Amino acid sequence: MKMEFETFKITVLPLREKLVSISRRIVEDGVDAEDIVQESLLKLWLMRGELDRYSSVEAFATQMVKNLSIDHLRARHPEGPPLESLSLDSGGRSPDELLEEKDAVACVRVLISQLPSLQQAIIRMKDIEGYELQEIADITGTQIEAVRVNLSRARKKIREQFLQLNRQ
Amino acid sequence: MNKMKHIRCALWLLMVLCLVLPEELYAAETQRDLKIQDVFTRYGKKKNVTMVELSKEMLETYGMTLYKSIVIKNDPEALRFTRQCLKADQNGARKIKEITDDGGVVSAYYQMPGKEKDINRFVLFKVNAKQVITLVYIEGELDSDDLITLLFTRKDF
Amino acid sequence: MKMKTDDIDKLIERYFEGETTADEERQLRVFFASESVPDRLSSYKPLFAYFDEEIQKVHPQRLQANEVKHTTKLWQTKKRWLYIVSGAAAAVLLLLAVNRVWFPTDPCYCSDNYVVINGRCYTDIHTVRAMAAEALHEVATPVDEYFPKADVNDRERHVVDDQLKDLGSMFNDNETNE
């Protein structure tokens, strides 16, 4: 990871500030812009192997940030819709329906998909890709504590929602 | 990013291989055109066979670039094969001198042009009364006069 | 690896605080996939089962019980390229070796000058030269049978004369037949 990160540090991370300002112009919120760029950096890291396919990594990253920023504008949900209403991913069924069907894993999947996209990305990096907090902090150009807090919030949210559904 | 390094590494290895491979191919190259070379490859390592090859350094003074000879004892099959090869190679020869008896060619001299300009190729063949086959292949800038001189004066290389 | 209930509770608490390492999270996944999960913790099972599923999709070669850290997986590192190229090189070299064994162009690779007698290669320069000269001489002298039998002295002289004549005509540029 070290070697490849060095390359990433030189080619991608320097773009961070510029990307934040691009995002901020679109979403008009500094905090959201920061999150969007962090999410982009994680995505760019996960596809680092294919990056040399693009003649300009900067152009590609810029486009990604713009797209995510526009998506963010369209979605515009601060915390997520009521649990029962959204039915994504698992064949058009809502989380509580899935739970009733004993498809608890699918229910978890839906719950995660309802998290803010940066938190989703962090969970993916930590729980699925197996990175450590420090690595995630390095890639996103942030502090380890900030990553931990985001991760903790995400996990607690999933727990809270799931237990709530379970009691029903 | 890292792909460039991988490609460079692969090219490097490929280059090393390319240095090794041509040695294999080159050895066969000058000989490939004449069927007579098959006699060397086929019988060179066998029992009752003596095969010699001399290097360029040793041959320089005589104007040769390659000298190969093979002496095969007691092998009628080899004789048949060699005669076949000689027949095949005759076609390209500029000069042919042969002595034949009932069995076939007993003594032969062929001169043919080489692959490069000013390089000649000579095939000398003989089978004696004791059925011993001697085959000599020479490449070089020398012409037939030079070769006669060489043979006459019995130089010992 | 048996998990004590206290340990597990502590680990779970740290997990939700975001304080666990990748290895500890692996331990949690293993634990929750096992049979020994107490009822009070059973609601956590789907969460870790979900991660197991996703991990299988992303890194299918990763085993549950003994996961290898992503940094040490051979085929995913840049060393893969090196192995592929080395493998190819080894294959080519093997082919060359086989080529030499089955299609020998020269039986002796030891030196520029060599003589092969009865299949054995000799590089002693005197031997090599001697053999070369012998062959050349043999091929230069005309066929025995064409000399009539006479007494020794005469024969010798004849032989020499005829040899010269034959030889000369043999190698002459002028196309004079004997």
Uncertain regions of chain A: pLDDT < 50 for 5+ in a row? 82-89
Order of helices and strands of chain C: HHHHEEHH
Q: What would the principal axes of the Cα set say about the shape of chain A?
A: globular
pLDDT averaged over residues of chain A: 87
Written account of the structure:
The complex is a heterotrimer of chains A (168), B (157) and C (178). By secondary structure, chain A is mainly alpha-helical. Chain A has one domain (2-76, 115-167). Chain A has 9 helices and no strands. With 157 residues, chain B is an alpha+beta fold. Chain B has helices spanning 2-32, 37-43, 56-59, 76-90, 144-153, and strands at 49-54, 64-72, 95-100, 105-113, 120-127, 133-140. Chain B has a 6-stranded antiparallel beta sheet. In chain B, helix 2 packs antiparallel against helix 4. With 178 residues, chain C is mainly alpha-helical. Chain C has 4 domains: 5-68, no CATH class; 73-105; 107-140, no CATH class; 142-178, no CATH class. Chain C contains 6 helices and 2 strands. Classes of the chains: A mainly alpha (168), B alpha+beta (157), C mainly alpha (178). Chains in contact: A-B, A-C, B-C. The A-B interface holds A 3-4, 7, 11, 48, 51-52 and B 1-4.
Secondary-structure blueprint:
The complex is a heterotrimer of chains A (168), B (157) and C (178).
Chain A: H1 2-11, H2 16-27, H3 30-46, H4 57-75, H5 95-100, H6 104-113, H7 117-128, H8 133-140, H9 144-167
Helix pairs in contact in A: 2-3, 2-4, 3-4, 3-7, 6-9, 7-9, 8-9
Chain B: H1 2-32, H2 37-43, E1 49-54, H3 56-59, E2 64-72, H4 76-90, E3 95-100, E4 105-113, E5 120-127, E6 133-140, H5 144-153
Antiparallel strand pairs in B: 1-2, 2-6, 3-4, 4-5, 5-6
Chain C: H1 5-16, H2 22-33, H3 45-58, H4 79-102, E1 114-117, E2 120-122, H5 125-140, H6 152-171
Antiparallel strand pairs in C: 1-2
Helix pairs in contact in C: 2-3
Which labels suit this protein?
heterotrimer; B: 157 residues; alpha+beta; 5 helices; 43% helix; elongated; C: 178 residues; mainly alpha; two-stranded antiparallel ribbon; 6 helices; 4% strand; rod-shaped
At a glance:
Chain A has 168 residues and is an all-alpha fold. Chain A has one domain (2-76, 115-167). Chain A has helices at 2-11, 16-27, 30-46, 57-75, 95-100, 104-113, 117-128, 133-140, 144-167.
